[in-house]
Amino acid sequence: MSISSEHKPLRKQVTSSLHTLSPIVELNVGGEMYTTTLSTLKKHPGSKLAEMFTGQPKLRTDSEGRFFIDRPGTYFKYILEYLRSNQVPTQCIQDVYKEALFYDIEPLIKQLEDSPQIFGELVARKQFLARVPNYSENIELMIRIARAEAVASRQSSVIVCVVRTEEDSARCQDALNSLDMDKKSVVKFGPWKAVPSISDLVDCIQMDVEAKGYKISVQPHVAEKGFRIKSQDFFYKFLFTWW
């Protein structure tokens, strides 16, 4: 026996209206539920978020008929807050910035980039690190060495050589050549042409390794007798603790 339309479940009726782009839209963003208007979502026509709801919906629906966006739902409330009131978030700036980039909301992206947190990261720190040759590759090399040394150990260490000038680089290489050691185990950073000091770069290295989830500490490395230079000026020991 067929069921008349007036006896169909309410949720099915809502789903039907959503597919015809009802002015009221229900969203499931990474498991967080939101209700807003179509005009709010399409406030910035050139954004990826607006394109999701332009013409035929380009999103899947969940079991309850809500449009599903596979992104962290916690931060979507800040995106909605901006779309509704033009209020720039003051919390979770780094995470909201990532979401603004994903949804391609250009005005919000620009305003967030003016915040101290994003400005300092993108304009100051990232621009500095871009001038340090092979910085990202050296971070990965450090981690590979530390993991290789961690077998049946609670801790493993990586020796890092940090040199700011070509002259210092030559001096460190000369010192390494004078010693009977495995030079492949020493990761070299620098030289670079920028204002930040050696200690600034060491801080960046520690910050970026910790951002990958590793527990580390750092201290100047005092070499054994035979070094031709004051080793603690250039060499640092990064200690990884595994358990």
Automatic annotation (TrEMBL):
Name it.
Answer: KCD14 protein
Instruction: Give the matching InterPro entries.
Output: BTB/POZ_dom (IPR000210), KCTD7/14_C (IPR057890), SKP1/BTB/POZ_sf (IPR011333), T1-type_BTB (IPR003131)
Residues annotated as domain BTB:
23-120
Q: Which GO terms describe its biological process?
A: protein homooligomerization
Gene3D superfamilies membership: Potassium Channel Kv1.1, Chain A (3.30.710.10)
Q: Which domain of life is it from?
A: Eukaryota
